[in-house]
């Protein structure tokens, strides 16, 4: 008689069953929520290996987090930028305006170092070192949960699995909404050449 573990390993090893098992894995991941449930109309997750699926989830979380901060930044920086009096107009033009000022060049250096430090820390925490990569192997470390960087200074991470799953779904959905929102904000400012609120 087969155990559940051995049956699942046979299913994963079988080339005929691999896509079916993989689709079930994608359907069971956090972020599959109402009203759409599992939503992949273009089949992006259809033929992905488990390691590639985890890599896509890592990417989705990273982009969602950046978009949430970016959406807030759009709303704040157009009307509040006390350190940069030379900045004016729509937010999409602010970085270009900063490149011509000494304050802006310092800001670019600080932002570049902060982004570089954050990305290196993320890579060292969850990614396999380039020298240790194996052909066909995962680029994420064994046991690493995409997006879980061990950074929780306020102790907000739930301790039980149901609350943790709920928080993961909320973060994913808010990140997805933020990515759409930032695209809309950028599109509006490009089309109108005015700030979000007409400034």
Please describe what this structure looks like:
This protein is mostly helical and 199 residues long. The chain has one domain (48-192): Chlorophyll a-b binding protein (Orthogonal Bundle). 55% of the residues lie in helices and 0% in strands. The longest helix is centred in the C-terminal third of the chain and has 32 residues, at 161-192. The termini are far apart. Residues 1-17 have low confidence and may be disordered.
Key features of this structure:
Chlorophyll a-b binding protein; mainly alpha; single chain; disordered N terminus; 55% helix; 199 residues
Quickly count the helices: 6
Looking at this structure, what is the CATH superfamily?
Answer: Chlorophyll a/b binding protein domain
Distance between the termini: 71 Å
Average pLDDT level: 81
Radius of gyration: 21 Å
Strand content: under 5%
Characterize the overall form.
globular
Query: What is the third-level CATH name, the topology?
Result: Chlorophyll a-b binding protein
User: How many domains, as an integer?
Assistant: 1
CATH top level?
Mainly Alpha
What is the number of beta strands? 0
Q: Into which percent range does the helicity of residues fall?
A: 55-70%
The secondary structure category is mainly alpha
Helix/strand order, N-terminal first: HHHHHH
Low-confidence stretches: 1-17
The largest β sheet comes out as:
none
């Amino acid at each position: 008689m087969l155990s559940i573990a051995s049956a699942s390993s046979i299913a994963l090893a079988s080339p005929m069953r691999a896509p079916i098992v993989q689709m079930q894995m994608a359907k069971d991941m956090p972020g599959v929520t109402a009203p759409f449930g599992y939503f992949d109309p273009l089949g992006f997750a259809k033929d992905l290996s488990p390691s590639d699926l985890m890599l896509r989830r890592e990417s989705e979380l990273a982009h969602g987090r950046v978009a949430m901060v970016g959406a807030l930044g759009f709303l704040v920086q157009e009307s509040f930028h006390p350190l940069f009096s030379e900045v004016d107009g729509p937010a999409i033009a602010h970085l270009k305006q900063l490149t011509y000022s000494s304050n802006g060049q310092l800001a670019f250096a600080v932002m570049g170092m902060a982004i570089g430090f954050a990305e290196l820390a993320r890579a060292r925490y969850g990614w396999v070192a380039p020298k240790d990569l194996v052909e066909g192997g995962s680029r994420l470390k064994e046991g690493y949960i995409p997006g879980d960087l061990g950074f929780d200074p306020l102790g907000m991470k739930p301790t039980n699995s149901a609350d943790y799953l709920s928080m993961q779904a909320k973060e994913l959905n808010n990140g997805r909404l933020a990515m759409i929102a930032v695209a809309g904000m950028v599109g509006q400012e490009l089309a109108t050449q005015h700030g979000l609120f007409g400034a």
